[in-house]
Design brief:
Distance between the termini: 22 Å
CATH topology of the domain at 316-521: Dipeptide-binding Protein, domain 3
Low-confidence stretches: 1-33, 35-46
Shape: globular
Number of helices: 14
CATH superfamily of the domain at 316-521: Dipeptide-binding Protein, Domain 3
CATH architecture of the domain at 316-521: Roll
Largest sheet: 7 strands, mixed
Helix content: 10-25%
């Protein structure tokens, strides 16, 4: 899957990608099972090839602007296209934009939309659609987790919101129906722009949505039945918490996908092995969203129809700290909490060699900007308790640790973290919910600690979590000096200069510890031998869906 990768990508995704969901669930439009649906052939009623992939959790929204989770993004990216896509080797490839030009000062980016690109209702995809999408994202009345991606654009503030929503966004200039310019406030690293505005944003159809008021955009009825899209697949139906059914977009500008019908099934981790074995699913979709459970990984070697595909981890698991709580507002207290958790033991006991201790949210995949000299907090419960005592920490204070279900290793980490924190005198109480409920509690601030996952490849992408008032700053962390570093990184095009700034960002996050960074598990992907090479999952998930194919009908 095309993951937000600049950041996370995020996934959480990423860009940054928070593996989370937003408020209400998408309204189911049909009932039934995918197995029954397959017997009738493709969505058009004609026989064709069928491919089934899986994710752990249900989708919450098919709205490309306001969706909050990596699960949502994975579904949306099959129906809607971004300007480019990024492969795990770090290279950017044309998608909706067939080419782009960069001015010598790295302040003007000119994109040329594929002349064959059109919406599924036959209308062309235009530069005006791009301008409309970015205008929506910059509108303060339209909540989006990706608003910070727009902050380098002229006409936006530091949060990526338009300085004057009543006027067209100054940073976007439509040249003609298939050409537009993005105008930066300052020189901008092409890698950053192509991974955020280029790869992280899905374009929506202006001619369909322009009558929807900005205040009603989140719950627009269109996104319960998104029948007009421009991606390789188009929406057929969603059976809530069971599966999403898609059909090939036969007029797709990169060619009709070989697969006629695509199912994205919601499969609990414990059912992945038997469903792979029985051919009910053909592939795991993306690391951090659909991995084979570690305990089932050895059993795959006995299946002649399934191949294992371990890939570098793209999701960092962390414990978010609610810094709005007075007793958790001190960085020294948060540092002590980080030292109290035996993260190496978590990795040994739970990952069994299939992962690594995290030293921050930035992924090692970024060979340029990942700071390999930064060391995780050492496990030192004695010192941790001394620091907490010196800070007059209220040890009798009940501390709520939210543990979402769905990710088995994360679930198992909850009691181990609780045990470590109790060992230094903290009164930690676990509250376990399904993922959507746990996220809702986190967003509402009803927590002290919350286990969650996400990813960033570019350190500046961390702004989505840690900038003051950022969309995913559920822990209410705010450091104006860190915000200045994010802004400096966004406005610097010289790699060596950005590298120094990004190192400082990573060091600051380590020292301030708004999260306890836990571990980055390897992606335990697997696929049926009937799928072609294009459908084999990568570190960024299954890429190039318009090329996915299987050896025969299912």
């Amino acid at each position: 899957m095309r993951r937000i990768a600049a950041p996370a990508t995020a996934a959480l995704l990423g860009v940054v990608l928070l593996v989370a969901a937003c408020g209400g669930a998408a309204t189911p439009v049909a009932t039934g099972s995918p197995s029954a649906a397959k017997t009738s052939g493709s969505a058009t009623g004609t026989a064709g090839k069928t491919l089934s992939i899986e994710v752990w959790s249900a989708f919450d929204s098919f709205n490309p602007i306001t969706a909050q989770s990596g699960y949502d993004d994975s579904a949306i990216s099959l129906m809607y296209d971004s300007l480019d896509w990024q492969s795990p080797d770090g290279k950017f490839h044309p998608l909706l934009a067939s080419s782009w030009d960069i001015s010598p000062d790295s302040k003007t980016y000119t994109f040329h939309i594929n002349p064959q690109a059109e919406w599924t209702d036959g209308q062309p995809v235009t530069a005006s659609d791009v301008a409309y999408t970015l205008q929506l994202m910059a509108d303060p009345k339209v909540p989006t987790k990706l608003g910070s991606y727009l902050s380098p654009l002229a006409g936006t503030n530091g949060s990526g919101q338009s300085v004057d929503p009543t006027k067209p966004l100054a940073g976007v200039k439509v040249i003609n129906s298939k050409t537009f310019e993005l105008l930066m406030k300052q020189p901008t690293d092409p890698n950053l722009l192509l991974s955020t505005l280029g790869n992280g944003i899905y374009i929506v159809p202006q001619h369909v949505l322009q009558s929807v008021p900005d205040t009603a955009f989140v719950k627009a009825s269109f996104f319960q039945d998104p029948t007009v899209s421009d991606g390789p697949f188009k929406f057929v139906k969603y059976v809530n918490s069971q599966y999403l059914q898609l059909a090939a977009n036969t007029s797709y500008y990169l060619g009709k996908p070989p697969v006629s019908t695509l199912y994205v099934k919601i499969v609990p981790p414990t059912s992945i092995l038997p469903e792979l074995r029985d051919g009910e699913i053909d592939a795991t979709l993306s690391p951090g969203e659909s991995d084979v459970p570690l305990q089932d990984w050895p059993s795959l070697t006995t299946l002649s129809n399934v191949k294992q595909d371990p890939v570098p981890g793209t999701t960092t698991q962390f414990m978010m700290i609610n810094t709005a709580k007075p007793y958790l507002a001190s960085a020294k207290v948060r540092d002590a909490i980080a030292m109290a958790i035996n993260v190496p033991e978590l990795v040994t006991a739970l990952l069994k060699g299939q992962g690594a201790v995290a030293n921050g949210p930035t992924l090692p995949l970024n060979a340029t900007y990942y700071d390999r000299s930064l060391q995780p907090w050492p496990f030192d419960p004695t010192k941790a308790k001394q620091v907490l005592q010196a800070a007059n920490f209220p040890f009798s204070q009940p501390l709520k640790l939210l543990v979402p279900t769905g990710n088995q290793i994360r679930q198992e980490s909850g009691p181990l973290i609780q045990q470590d924190l109790q060992a230094v005198g903290l009164n930690v109480q676990i509250q376990q919910y399904d993922f959507a409920t746990s996220l809702a509690q986190t967003k509402a601030g009803n927590f002290d600690f919350s286990l969650i996952g996400g990813f960033t490849v570019d350190p500046a992408g961390n702004a989505i979590y840690f900038a003051c008032g950022a969309p995913l700053d559920y822990g209410k962390f705010c450091d104006p000096n860190l915000d200045k570093l994010f802004q400096a990184s966004d406005s610097t095009a010289v790699v060596s200069q950005r590298q120094k700034i990004n190192d400082e960002i990573q060091q600051t996050l380590h020292d301030e510890a708004p999260f306890v960074f836990l571990y980055t598990p390897d992606g335990l992907m697997a696929y049926n031998t009937r799928v072609n090479e294009a459908a084999v999952p990568t570190a960024y998930g299954m890429l190039e869906p318009w090329l996915w194919d299987v050896s025969g009908p299912q």
